[in-house]
Amino acid sequence: MKTIIVDDERLARKELQTLLARFDQIEIVGEYGNVEEALVGIEQLKPELIFLDIQMPGKNGFDLLEELEVVPKVIFVTAFDEYALRAFEKNAVDYLLKPVEEDRLAEAVQKALQNDISVSDDVLLRQGRLGQDDQVFLKDGDKCWFVPLSEVRLFESEGNYVRVFFQSYKPLILKSLNNLEDRLDHTFFRTNRKFIVNLKWVQSVENWFNGGLRMTLKDGTVVEVSRRQSARFRDYLSL
Predict the structure, then answer these.
(1) What pLDDT, in 10s, does the model give residues 110-163?
(2) Which ranges in the chain are annotated with CATH 3.40.50.2300?
(3) Distance of alpha carbon 35 from alpha carbon 41, whole angstroms
(4) What is this structure's pTM?
(5) Which CATH class is domain 142-237?
(6) Those residues with Cβ within 8 angstroms of residue 21's Cβ, 6 or more apart along the chain or in another chain
(7) Taking the domain 2-124, which CATH number applies?
C-alpha cells in the first residue's frame, strides 16, 4: 500500500518510518513537513494511505484534506487528544496519539488494509471525472466529513455555494454548481439551474408540465427537470 507521512516534526516522521518498516504491505513513498509540499507529493505519487499530523504551522491537516479532490485513506497522528472525536466523525481509518505505540500502530495498519472506503489505485490514477467510487472531503465550519460520492444523493446551488445532501447532513461548500458539474461523471445529472441529482438515487421519473419531467429520489425528495434538460435526459436514456 503506497503510503506518505505528513508531519512538521522531522524526528516524528523518522520514528514513524522506523515503526512502519516491519509492515511488508506498507510502502512509504514520501514524507513531507508541510501541507504545500504534501499536496505536490500526493498529486505526483497518488498514495493510498496518509499518516497525517493535524496541528502544523500554517495550514493544518484538515486544510490539506480540504484541498484534495479525491481523498485516500487517512490515519491521524497527533499529540493532541482533543482532536480525537473530530477525527472519528470524519470516518478516518484511525487516530494515533504521539508517541505512537507499536500495538496501536499495528491495529491502525490492519484497519487500513481491511478498510474499503477509500478509492482504489485505478480511481486515483484515472484522469477524468469523479464518480460513485470516489471519496471526497467536505468541510462546513468546524464540521468535516469523508464522503463516498455514492452516498451523495443531491447537490443544490445556493448562490456561490453548493449544499451537499448525504445521510442526514447537508453542508455548504464554496463551489459553483457549474464547476461541480464539470467534475462529475455521467451518473450525476444536472436537472435544472439549481440541482444536480445522483441518478443512482432516483426511484422514479414521470412526465410533468410543458414537456418536463419530475424525479422522485429514494429518500422521497422530488426534483423537477427543466424542459431542456428533460430532452437531454430522454436522449441519454433513449426514452
Answers:
(1) 989 985 444 444 443 344 688 998 888 887 777 778 888 999 999 999 988 999
(2) 2-124
(3) 10
(4) 0.67
(5) mainly beta
(6) none
(7) 3.40.50.2300
